Amino acid sequence: MEHVQVVGTGMTPFGKFPGRSLKNLAGTAVAEALRDAGIGPDDVEIAFFANATAGLISGQEMIRGQVALREAGLLGIPLVNVENACASGSSAFCLAHMAVASGQYEVALAVGAEKLVHPDKARSFAALAAAVDLDRRDDLRALIYPDGDAAAGTGSLFMDVYAHAAREYMRRSGATAADFAAVTAKNHRHGALNPKAQYRNEVTEAQVLESRMISDPITLLMCSPIGDGAAALVLCSAERARRLGVPGVAVRATKVLSGSDQHELAPVRTARRAYDRAGLGPGDLDVVELHDAAAPAELQIYEELDLCPEGDGPGLLASGATALGGRIPVNPSGGLLSRGHPVGATGCAQLVELADQLRGRAGGRQVPGARVGLAENAGGFLGPDHAAASVTILSV
């Protein structure tokens, strides 16, 4: 198996861009990644394009990548479309890694892009709500509304799911709404240092708690925003990276699993396999990007990744360990809460952040001496478990 390096990263700002197309966003991120790697489109041998919602937002189906990248100089090569809910971008990265690691290709491209903003917000929310088993949606509703009071729902099925998980977590761990507000405040402090974040404003914990209730205990500022954006990464063999003469970041492990009916959730199982493949453990990590689609999820994922013992997520946060300057900064990019969450682009954006951190070029949010980073990305729901989960470990 070939050793694989990330040698180029590119990313657009995340935000609401009604005047920019999916094609424009994807092309911008790809051009930046190719420049960073010191190569041109003709050097790319295979590309994987991730997008989750274009079919429901714009009606573009089946050949999304070919359309989005047709002006980027990439047509004529194998171009694979990847759709895997919020884990679409990280799944595209995993496939690009497999292509190079197999020895069949020397240079591969992973791209994630999303245009989630639409004049009719209901269309955006409906696209997101499609990431469940529609045939068993009543089962999911019965899980999150155990008293049968579906009328208590907010109209955002996903936030209701996250709120249900948050309430269960509060019972198990003693976490409070103030802890969730502290997650949002931390990630907004980080995002304020990221010029490509959707929200670059700091917020106080009081502001988070006082914002509009979405689904108890989750308030508006505890929710990741809807937005547009794209991110891309160039992967190549270690030998090709040596010839290019650019500083690369090693892919130590990248794993993608589906949810299941097993007792252990998909992120837990995926993390364990990634640690085993990399020959590393939680104590080796210097920086983490994780899927904080709602603020309570960050504390739960601390535990799923074994960053702390079960039930100690609030304690880890309160210790300052997961803030910039702490022992293991989490979401220095601002995370989904501040950087934004254009679904198909999120997984690639997390990996762009990690690669830039490990290459020492994250600016004011740089984690000093970072050498090992982990990204966790999950999406969709199959009952209590995520439909897809991804964990990737990079190092220098």
UniProtKB/TrEMBL annotation:
InterPro entries per record: Thiolase (IPR002155), Thiolase-like (IPR016039), Thiolase_C_2 (IPR055140), Thiolase_CS (IPR020613), Thiolase_N (IPR020616)
Keyword Mitochondrion: no
Keywords: Lipid transport, Lipid-binding, Transferase, Transport
Domain called Thiolase N-terminal: residue spans: 4-238
Domain Thiolase C-terminal: 255-383
Gene3D superfamilies (alphabetical): 3.40.47.10
Record-level GO BP terms: lipid transport
Assigned EC number: 2.3.1.176
PANTHER family in alphabetical order: ACETYL-COA C-ACETYLTRANSFERASE, NON-SPECIFIC LIPID-TRANSFER PROTEIN-LIKE 2
Identification of the protein by name: propanoyl-CoA C-acyltransferase
